[in-house]
Amino acid sequence: MFAAVPENAASGPPKLIPLLYMPTLSDWFNTPKGQYVLEWEQAQFDNAIEDVFGFNAVQVGLPGLDFLRESRIPLRFSVDGIPSASLVADPTHLPLATHSIDLLVLPHVLEFSDNPHQILREVERVLMPEGQVVISGFNPLSLWGLRGIFGGARYPWSGRFIGLFRMRDWLTLLGFELNGGRFGCYVPPLSQTRWLQRFSFLESAGDRWWPIAGGVYVVRAVKRTAGMRLVMPSWRERRLKRPALVQVARRDNVIHVLPAERR
Fold first, then answer.
1. What sign results for the dihedral spanned by CA atoms 156, 158, 163, 167?
2. Which of 5, 70, 174, 196 is positioned for an S-S bond with 124, CB 3.0–4.6 A?
3. Are 87 and 79 in contact (CB under 8 A)?
């Protein structure tokens, strides 16, 4: 890309100088380290959203990567401040109606934002009661977090990594309840694929011996609404009272039931 630098009339037309391209987080995901993290994260997002149902699902950030690919929700779109997003908008002020979204995913959005609290407040506002949010982030208490201390201004080390316990506290204050999550990427943040593969045995060892030291985490939370009660139609309540079951025995870890006598 080039930018025009204006000059005075005596010196002739403006000169074109090349602009310095600034790599983004999406660019980093094309590196060997990024591909390693992305493969693990995509699998976690797939597992986290495949059983979430509704009508509207939103991905905030990284519109070039599809973290909603396994969602069964019919309407799916992305929101970000770059033109490649389905909806170009600031994540701190989502142009979405209150209580209109069933599922929202935040892949590495909070740690690269100047106002992560405001983004979470917007998430709470647009999600329906019992709506789900899935968040990924780099773990500061890991080899990847240690690498971030000396990473400088390059992605992803320029982010302000948020620990899982702090993330849980933020979500709890907004009325969310964690209902799933996992750490991963226990290998050191090496630059070559062959070295990442050589240390891949640390994945199973890390899950067993130091589970909270993974380089990346993915968590899912549900929005709880105080005092909310599902109202059932009266005809359904009458139908549910008839086929009563009673537990009679437990054998071989299987519960056997017999129909109770109708009154």
1. negative
2. 174
3. yes
